[in-house]
User: What shape does this take?
Amino acid sequence: MTVPNRLLPWQQHQWEHLCSYIAQKRIPQALLITGNKGLGKQQLANQFAVALLCATPQANGMACGICSSCLLVNAETHPDFIQIQPEELGKGIGIGQIRSLITRLTLKPQFETYRVVIVNPADKMNNAAANAFLKCLEEPTERTVIILITEKPAKLPATIISRCQKLAVVSPDKETVVDWLAKALQGKSPLAPLLQRGDLLCNVSLAQGAPLLALDYANDETLTLRNECFNAWMAIAKQLKSPVIIAEDWHKLPASPLIFWITSWIIDLIKCFYHTKVENLYNPDLNEQLQELSQQLELKGLYKLYDLLLAGRQRLDTQINKQLLFEEILIQWHELNRLNRSK
Assistant: This one.
């Protein structure tokens, strides 16, 4: 793991806060970093970890990159740098991993600086793991810093949160993200020359202002997939396609972004009903179709569907049948449009 010796542009304030811990020699024993997906929380935590491990940090707080500790970090062999994460994609962090961590923490750090533990995502610890992890916080060991990372702090037990210093990474303004995204894509994506500023703004909106997520979307043609889903959604509204057949196709797609897209369309329809400016929509490129559709639908029905979508988002972390979820959403959308067309 090579840690780049630079910050993401929107993290300067958070970095200064972390550097103040070092300057004042008040390093927290436990630090909780929160923020939406795609803001670079892991990169910020890595930067702080390497700075704590570095034998000769620079004046700006960054690691030197050439001392033995930095070289060991880049080679992924530093004995005092521990990362805890799910062992398999889609799985949680189990109690076995935490017990192993507790055993390692009973030993002293092997170097003269700090030992750093990063747990990401911290909310993936199951109940047994979280209860065992409390021991690490209640009985901190010598020169050890524990960094927890999560985009869902509400899922962490209050007993863990209360024992941590907090650092929130917030989304930068849209213009900052668009400018950064344009530079990041320059020469790196085959689609870069084809992406206009409007396309970049759409990617930023779809990523809810998260720069790294917007970059992923631009690289993997997420905007194209969103447009295909929107066309299918509109076909259901026009009674041209069956909601059941579309749900069968959609359950094969990543559920979380798809639920967000549908939610954003409903929110935009409600905004159009109140004549909101185009630039304030989640999907400004779809404004014309959304404006036309908003004049045909009842606000009460849109709010009812919005409530269903919010409930659906809460159920995504459970063992839910995604096809049935999308059927329920799309059938309600179909009925909302059918009733209004029959009037």
In short: The chain has a mean pLDDT of 88.
